[in-house]
Design a protein that fits this description.
This protein is an alpha/beta fold. Helices cover about 45% and strands about 20% of the residues.
Length: about 625
């Protein structure tokens, strides 16, 4: 297990936490939480051996394989699939040794390597890598594309897939949902629930933490504390502890005031001086209890809207796309004043494209975009962080919008976004992604928008800032169009949801839990259709129950025949592998074929049996 004993850690002169003693047992899944800059990423670096503790000990079992997500991806010509396969270093090592042994005609070693490859499930590695890429939103065509052809966000998805590909005892994930859409987040949550190793997860997404972890490791006030339960349980426990601390603080303050009053009254009176001195010494020895601190460091509000007409944006017969690739055709969509709409849909469905078109950043190929007169639009997207001037300060960024504003008024405004003191008037070049995102949001708020177009605004932001945005949006008078993978943010802000699919926008009447179930059903349906296509069966149409049941029964009968046939083939291959002559040099090609057939038959048999079980349960339901 992971054991921290009387551990203290610093970065430079800053103390992150001290005297921490924590045990995390094998198989536990823990969320690592705390405000930005408290030491979460430094703790990961410590566990990976990249940092040394200042005091105390950090013990991780020496034989544990640790997987983590790289923060940078070089511009490689290597395909996405091969890049992900590199995450399984054991598979790649055996693969290289097989190639070398084949070249050198080392037949006995080849037989051992083929057995080793089967033992590590290496013959299924390509299929596993493909499933990871599909789950994270990559199409089959994109698997063969060069890594360098993907944007920064998609390369981070490749890094995540590579980390998940690694057979690991300890998995360290630092904000893995930052570059994912809601559909990929749902898939990742299911994957992590099936992960059998120990997981440490840095995340500011409440719902994601609730769905994955059973412990919370929290850094606050230079202390590291382990709580049992998910994030909601942690919040409840912490609030109870803070309430108790505040009650004890108030009780102690009354006691101190009473003792101090006695000292002030009688310290110079001869008959009472001894008792007064005794109380004075007791006050000096007293361990003072600090007041409970729960104040959010971020606090801001949107200005009143100027344009509150009924209909503020309308797309008429819009055709939107990129060259020959059309995302929307003949689209009609309007936004009324005060609307609060959440955009849902799988990656690539067109959520960001729609927002770009509504903001005017993306030209229509056909159709018309109508906006209310003097409409002020606040548009937030991740690429806007790159458009900030690294050589300018926060104050200078605001002055570019409003040259006549006083510096003190700007400082007061920026303070609500956490930019105080030197942070407000020094160049932003060394700012973290979260700080740049806060500044970009501050600049949007300053411009007094009537319509907010927010494309994943919570990426890189900690829980306090996410709460501040949610509270501010709840009292915002204007219209909001929101794309977010943060379910808590969506639940807090939006009033209605629409679902984008195949170039059309559909109302979604359920809640986000129902949408999550809808996503899972779609994933299962896609898998069933793939299996059906492979088995030359007509795909299941879930909207037609009678046909679905009949097709399911036919598929079950076919699966039973496939299971029987594969079982017999596996018996035959296993028997052949039991023959001693197959390991003779002249039979090396047959040996390799039998090993591959054995692995393939086992994998396909598992898939057929799992599908048989799922269809049988579906029919029962």
């Amino acid at each position: 297990m992971i054991q921290l004993t009387n551990l203290s850690l610093r970065r430079g002169h800053k103390l992150l936490f001290e005297d921490a003693s924590i045990s995390i047992h094998p198989g536990h899944k823990a969320g690592l939480t705390g405000a930005n800059g408290t030491g979460k990423s430094s703790l990961f670096a410590l566990l990976m051996g990249q940092l040394q503790a200042d005091l105390g000990e950090c013990s991780v079992p020496k034989n544990w394989q640790i997987a983590h997500v790289k923060q940078e991806t070089p511009a490689l010509d290597q395909s996405a699939l091969d890049y992900v396969l590199d995450g399984d270093v054991v598979f790649r090592d055996i693969e290289r040794r097989i190639a070398r042994a084949t070249e050198q005609e080392q037949h006995e070693q080849l037989a051992e390597l083929y057995a080793e490859m089967e033992h590590v499930d290496g013959y299924a590695a390509h299929a596993k890598a493909g499933r990871l890429l599909h789950g994270l939103g990559f199409s089959p065509e994109e698997e063969s594309q060069a890594v360098k052809s993907f944007s920064g966000g998609w390369r981070m998805r490749l890094n995540l897939a590579q980390a998940l590909m690694c057979p690991s005892d300890l998995l360290l994930l630092d904000e893995p949902t930052n570059h994912l859409d809601l559909e990929a987040v749902v898939w990742l949550q299911d994957w992590l629930n099936r992960y059998e190793g120990t997981l440490l997860l840095i995340s500011h997404d409440r719902d994601f933490l609730d769905g994955v972890v059973g412990h919370i490791l929290h850094i606050e006030h230079e202390h590291l504390t382990l709580y049992s339960g998910n994030y909601s349980d942690f919040e409840k426990t912490r609030m109870e502890q803070l309430a108790l601390q505040q009650a004890m603080f108030e009780k102690q303050q009354k006691q101190i005031a009473h003792m101090q009053s006695y000292v002030d009254r009688f310290r110079y009176k001869a008959s009472k001086a001894k008792q007064a001195q005794s109380r004075l010494k007791a006050l000096e020895r007293m361990d003072t209890i600090a007041a409970a601190q729960v104040e959010n460091p971020f606090h801001f509000e949107f200005y009143p809207c100027q344009n509150l007409k009924h209909q503020i944006v309308e797309l008429e017969h819009a055709v939107i796309g990129y060259g020959d690739h059309l995302v929307f055709q003949d689209l009609n969509f309007s936004v009324t004043a005060g609307a609060r709409i959440g955009l849902l849909g799988r990656n690539g469905a067109g959520k960001s494209t729609l927002i770009k078109a509504m903001s005017g950043e993306k030209d229509l190929q056909k159709g018309e975009l109508k906006t209310a007169k003097d409409l002020h639009i606040g548009y937030f997207a991740q690429h806007q962080l790159e458009q900030l001037d690294p050589s300018s300060s926060c104050i200078e960024h605001v002055l570019q919008l409003d040259p006549k504003a006083s510096e003190q008024d700007i400082k007061n405004f920026l303070g609500g976004f956490g930019f105080r003191g030197d942070k407000a008037d020094t160049p932003i070049k060394p700012f973290s992604g979260g700080e740049k995102a806060r500044l970009a949001l501050a600049l949007i708020v300053y411009q007094k928008p009537d319509l907010l177009l927010l494309d994943e605004p919570t990426n890189h932001l900690d829980l306090n800032m996410r709460d501040a945005i949610s509270f501010a949006l709840q009292s915002y008078e204007g219209a909001v169009i929101l794309v977010s993978h943060d379910k808590h943010m969506l639940n807090s802000v939006i009033d209605e949801m629409v679902y984008i699919d195949r170039g059309q926008i559909h109302p979604f009447d359920g809640d986000l839990d129902e949408y999550q179930s809808f996503i899972k059903a779609q994933i299962k349906q896609a898998e069933a259709e793939e299996a059906a296509e492979a088995g030359n069966m007509v795909p299941i149409n879930k909207k037609q129950n009678h046909k679905a049941n009949k097709a399911a029964k036919n598929r079950i009968q076919k699966l039973e025949k496939l299971i029987d046939a594969h079982t017999q083939k596996l018996v035959d291959v296993t028997a052949r592998l039991g023959d001693s002559d197959i390991y003779e040099p002249e039979n090396q090609h047959e040996l390799q074929r039998c090993m591959e057939d054995s692995q393939r038959l086992k994998s396909e048999l598992d898939d057929y049996e799992a599908e048989w079980m799922e269809l049988s349960e579906s029919l029962e339901d």
